[in-house]
Amino acid sequence: MTHIRRLASLGFTTAAAFGFGIGEARAADALSSGDTAWILTATALVLFMTLPGLALFYGGLVRARNVLSVLMHCFAVACVASIAWLVVVYSLAFDDGGAHQEWIGGLGKVFLDGVGTESLSGTIPETVFFMFQMTFAIITPALIVGAYPERIRFGAVVAFSLVWLVLVYAPACHWVWGGGWLADMGVLDFAGGIVVHVTAGVSALVLAIVLGPRRGFPHEIRPPHSPGMTVTGAAMLWVGWFGFNAGSALAADGNAGMAMTVTHISAAVASLVWAVTEYFRFGKPSVIGIVTGMVAGLAAITPAAGFVGPMGAVVIGIISGFVCQWFTTWIKFKIKIDDSLDVFAVHGVGGILGTLLVAVFAVPDFGGLGLAEGVTITDQLQVQVIGILSVAVWSGVITWVIAQIISRTIGLRVSEESEIEGLDIIAHGERGYDLT
Amino acid sequence: MTHIRRLASLGFTTAAAFGFGIGEARAADALSSGDTAWILTATALVLFMTLPGLALFYGGLVRARNVLSVLMHCFAVACVASIAWLVVVYSLAFDDGGAHQEWIGGLGKVFLDGVGTESLSGTIPETVFFMFQMTFAIITPALIVGAYPERIRFGAVVAFSLVWLVLVYAPACHWVWGGGWLADMGVLDFAGGIVVHVTAGVSALVLAIVLGPRRGFPHEIRPPHSPGMTVTGAAMLWVGWFGFNAGSALAADGNAGMAMTVTHISAAVASLVWAVTEYFRFGKPSVIGIVTGMVAGLAAITPAAGFVGPMGAVVIGIISGFVCQWFTTWIKFKIKIDDSLDVFAVHGVGGILGTLLVAVFAVPDFGGLGLAEGVTITDQLQVQVIGILSVAVWSGVITWVIAQIISRTIGLRVSEESEIEGLDIIAHGERGYDLT
Amino acid sequence: MTHIRRLASLGFTTAAAFGFGIGEARAADALSSGDTAWILTATALVLFMTLPGLALFYGGLVRARNVLSVLMHCFAVACVASIAWLVVVYSLAFDDGGAHQEWIGGLGKVFLDGVGTESLSGTIPETVFFMFQMTFAIITPALIVGAYPERIRFGAVVAFSLVWLVLVYAPACHWVWGGGWLADMGVLDFAGGIVVHVTAGVSALVLAIVLGPRRGFPHEIRPPHSPGMTVTGAAMLWVGWFGFNAGSALAADGNAGMAMTVTHISAAVASLVWAVTEYFRFGKPSVIGIVTGMVAGLAAITPAAGFVGPMGAVVIGIISGFVCQWFTTWIKFKIKIDDSLDVFAVHGVGGILGTLLVAVFAVPDFGGLGLAEGVTITDQLQVQVIGILSVAVWSGVITWVIAQIISRTIGLRVSEESEIEGLDIIAHGERGYDLT
Amino acid sequence: MKMIIAIVKPHRLDGVRTALQEIGVHGMTTEEVKGYGRQGGHSEIYRGAEYTVSFVPKVKIEVVTSDALMEPAVEAIAQAAKTGKIGDGKIFVLDVAKAVRVRTGEQGDDAL
Amino acid sequence: MKMIIAIVKPHRLDGVRTALQEIGVHGMTTEEVKGYGRQGGHSEIYRGAEYTVSFVPKVKIEVVTSDALMEPAVEAIAQAAKTGKIGDGKIFVLDVAKAVRVRTGEQGDDAL
Amino acid sequence: MKMIIAIVKPHRLDGVRTALQEIGVHGMTTEEVKGYGRQGGHSEIYRGAEYTVSFVPKVKIEVVTSDALMEPAVEAIAQAAKTGKIGDGKIFVLDVAKAVRVRTGEQGDDAL
Ligand SMILES: Nc1ncnc2c1ncn2[C@@H]1O[C@H](COP(=O)(O)OP(=O)(O)O)[C@@H](O)[C@H]1O
Ligand SMILES: Nc1ncnc2c1ncn2[C@@H]1O[C@H](COP(=O)(O)OP(=O)(O)O)[C@@H](O)[C@H]1O
Ligand SMILES: Nc1ncnc2c1ncn2[C@@H]1O[C@H](COP(=O)(O)OP(=O)(O)O)[C@@H](O)[C@H]1O
Fold this sequence. Notes:
The complex is a heterohexamer, with 3 copies of chain A and 3 copies of chain D. Chain A is an all-alpha fold. Chain A has one domain: Ammonium transporter AmtB like domains (Ammonium transporter fold), CATH 1.10.3430. Chain A has 16 helices and 2 strands. In chain A, helix 8 runs antiparallel to helix 13 and helix 9 runs parallel beside helix 11. Chain D is 22% helix and 42% strand. Chain D is an alpha+beta fold. The mean pLDDT of chain D is 92. In chain D, the strands form 2 sheets. In chain D, strands 2-5-1-6 form a 4-stranded antiparallel β-sheet, covered by helices on one side. A two-stranded antiparallel sheet of chain D has the order 3-4. The termini of chain D are close together. Chain D contains 2 helices and 7 strands. The radius of gyration of chain D is 17 Å and the shape is elongated. Chains in contact: A-B, A-C, A-D, A-E, B-C, B-D, B-F, C-E, C-F, D-E, D-F, E-F. At the A-B interface, helix 3, helix 9, helix 10, helix 11 and helix 12 of A face helix 3, helix 4, strand 2 and helix 5 of B.
């Protein structure tokens, strides 16, 4: 029994909460080539977000002598996550967990056991659902790359990502999208405010604390070596996010269209809000700033995309553009944590904001598509807070444990001399640029 | 009542003229998930054309110290256009204008009022139509960025683009695609020869005149700082243009297939024609040249894509590759206008050529899909000329007025010292490259 | 009569062997907008693989002073191939060849003669099939660019690619996918292990031999000037390959979904295998290495994508990541052929491996979707070997002849001084980077 | 002969070249360098974070002149490079023992 | 006055700068250069292929000091730059005939 | 000791290095520079537009040699760098007062 069929019986709200489009709730057993076409495309788009999107976004922000190491981190994490997904994580997240279904899925789909070309998941082949969801499992640990560049050991990146996917991502994904306890409570998370952004953001923060700051942090850090590379990656993130959010409708329909619309609007608004705020704070709107605003707006709309209307998107864009900016400064300069590329401030905070605001803007009065019958804003907010807190605590604690173990075994951090020399040549034997 | 339903009653030619595929004319009220899947994809492709496509294409052509400013221009214009589109431009372009429908649309769709997940536009959700068309409203003012880099004030870019979208783009789009007077006349513009390329090209020329040339123009300008960046952007434009032209069929059908085919052929032919011409003129075909030819071929086929066959595409490719090249030299070195990245010569001239040639090559004798019943080539040519001239004059005059006002208020141009220092550090406080 | 209809009557295995999805075999006469949407998208994805994907992948691997020439090679080859495809190659590959159908197609579809917006090819418009297949005809000669950078004359690139498409690609494509003698034998090549990778790989090797090595080969060659550019291109190849392989199902269905799944898995596995092997050989896994492993894994899964299951993909990934790496070293340092960017070692060897292994892993016992009725692994292996050998010999011999003729007429190689100065400035009058 | 080494603000390069040409100096070699001096400690802001950038981009100009032309050349450079703001740069003069023009083998002042 | 030209390993730059500051030298100019010496012939590996990279990235530091400060400055650089491994670099000292601060026109030691 | 500063065409660098090695000079430092001289005013064409590129890419080679080796080194460079076409470059020689090898502290000719 595919999970979608199971879910269909839970009725509208829950199904939607699992990231399936509203239209999906009318459980369909026949393959729709149109829906399949869109999710195949969306899968390509979300992979494109990580490779090369996120890799370039992050790569441009570090020092030239570490650019390749960041690309390598993103690339290797993508490979490791893909294999982990096939081997066990997909099954843990989406297979029926039987007695412990509330907490974790089963092992029936390990290595895609029993899934063939005829297996369906709603109106699309299950392989397509598997692939689409896999791209989320790729980008989530890849987001954490932003917490530890320029000083981490490569082996630690691989080991951490692998273990983290099994211990943090699989359960969180199961709880919210796989029919676990948060799904049962009716938590709303359309495309991953909790599953992707809260898990990655909190884990990034904890890992940054355990790892310690870069030499010279906070003021003697070198500015981004190639903002143009970062903008290129950011633009790819924007385009790819259409697949992320509108693909989460799991159909090519009006729900997907609205999800794409609000996604775009939130991104555009948050970008401008960030730029305008910078203009008032420093006199100059920067290109790094505007694209960071874009990411904040996208992270924040992610949990809300299929539930809110354009007005909700505008407000979510404004708030996230403003609040996430405040957090970038606060974390680096007040509490002095070197979450180097601001994963928590942008993704974590953005994801949390959107997960809270969806409870408000899903209401028809605010232009939304409606909460479940009989559920008030306050009810929903409570559920959302529980979802955020439980996943945040789980992510933080497990990350801390994994980091400690790695630190005491293979080691987390390179030597100071290696840090100065740069990870490209030290860890990978390569140089980023030879323009002669 | 959506505009498409209205249009359907106008019958084949007009509907096609509005950029809806031929298949569209059989007004369909049911959602097609296949068509929706393709237009969702096409929307992503056209956004990709601007971000990062066009941004990189232009960014590589300027001096290293202005590269970020160009990326910022494209990015900020995209954000501003998206918001303007939501707030009022979509409504002005596509809502029913009632009594003044000939000239401009109504305000009924401001902020997507009344548009929900169930609203259709032909066989696709209206939100998807809204998003697809929005990407055109993004790229059109972004094309104009090529007229003014390396010397314009950032505030002027934002202000100009915003006002221009309302005063130039909204009416032009309405006239041709929204059921306005040019549509009534039966003007043919499949994907934006007039609406996108003529408006942007002419406005670029006028703005370049008002702004004045860069220091050292024409001979002491620095050559492109990163042709590889330009080629990267160009390739993205090519791929994205599949969404632009084949998406304008608004369906996943034979019309879309043929539109994609002729688009590709024109691009390939114009690229080679440009390169060969350079070889004969200068002895060396350049990579900047070949990709410029590509853009010329794509701009020229745009209005014709859904109406002509492969032979028409070959001829349009040859002519545009040759004529646009001639214009780049002529404008810069004969009439000495610093339309810095050749927006008029490539897009304006290309768009005009295609808009004229479609009248010829739409005829079945020349491999086309046919003009409306009873319409001769000469009839159609007349309409096309009226379309080009009216939109060109409107674009030019309004651009001139907006530019004058900005020049007298917030100011158009940076100081000479800032121009030398470069806009990246002056306007955005950032540096393009730090490879140490 | 379109070839697809013809093929349908040949029954399951053969149809699948021609790269049409299994579902396709139930010959459908009606347009499916879902399938069309996916193949339009896949076409864009495969074009994206060449431009800018492959161009950047290759561009980053050469010296800075040759980067533009490599981009130019890829771009010009794409244009030339597109026109050749329209003029004659599509017809030779896919039109009915009548009496000599076993060997080559006819000339009935020259310039797309008789193909209109209503022509179907299975469930998609024939123009869409034409475009999709065209992107394969673009990337195949573009792959060969990796054999000759940094020393070839630009004219030779253009001439070679053009003639090669007609004399090598058209027949090979016809034999395998167009209903030729290899198709009759039941050769399995889902998306181009033979048609794309064997032809390109072998031709690259032969061309590299005729052309001779770069100055200073093998040890004084400059290392890749921009590994980051290479990674960017590699990531685009990965994403685009979804279109390549899953698009080859020619439908948006379960076969496409499984093809995408195994494609992805093979890529991820081969990447990690390459990196781990490097770690054991040299102590450092490199980013150039991991992405080369990715390409090897993708090349190897290409012929197998629609026939094998996840387990097959894992094994194919492991073997290709390991064997292709061994070949890169062997060819350059043992037999000392300067196939500069390892086209044969990666694509040729990868394609051969996959073409052999599909015979094994298509068997249901190994998780595959099954061989044709009554066909054993050994039978199939025999056919596969015949396919590989015949195409390899044909590619090699014809390439050698073309290269000799070019060498004696327009000349293959630039002067030593030009080679030192760099092709960018010598052949195209441009410089790759001016960061001042 | 003397080698004049001038470290100036990048955007002054064109002005310096013109000034030198006017007094008859037609050859020079330039490089991009990073300078550290009183101007040191300027900062750039990314994502609201201030980064201290100790080394500021400068252009270094090397001109070899005859002994006679040295003073006017230094004068010309100093004037053309001056903005009056901190970080305008320095000019150093070193003795040159020998000069050769590669193409012709000419030596001494003839080589310049 | 003297011009000290030091060619050192790139990651030693910050240390050298600090060492110079401690002894009162507050101005310097740096460039990225490629060096060739005994260290020459190191190799990089790409796709299993060993490439000989003859020129190794180094940083060149130019500091002009008064005659008196030269010795301590050379000493400070030498200590800060030393790793004890091959390729640590060289320090050369040249005579400077004249120095001018562009902003003020000051000359000689005052210009430094 | 002498410092030889040679500004040559980039593609001659390898040749110069070999020539120097043959006469026993095993260390050198190179930088990419932009030169301006008689060759000045070459032009590049983009989109049919001619752009005057005043500064031409050159390579600057700095070699410190013992007094005795200086003449042969200059000779070797001049020969290896010569193409006979305009823009071949210049060689300048300056006196070096002091040289130190960082790794060992050796001084003078021993440091080279
Ligand atoms: N002692 C020195 N030796 C070499 N270069 C120096 C020295 N002092 C300054 N410079 C160079 O001159 C530049 C300008 O010096 P700075 O002290 O910032 O300003 P100003 O010359 O206006 O006082 C520096 O960035 C550095 O490149
Ligand atoms: N004779 C020389 N002239 C100029 N620069 C030199 C000379 N010899 C060495 N160098 C520079 O010093 C650097 C270090 O020298 P090298 O011989 O590799 O190591 P070490 O100084 O430890 O013996 C070289 O990379 C080069 O930049
Ligand atoms: N007076 C000078 N001082 C410093 N460098 C010079 C001088 N004259 C020429 N050069 C350098 O030498 C290079 C070659 O000089 P140029 O006059 O173009 O050719 P040629 O040496 O063949 O006459 C120039 O590009 C510049 O880098």
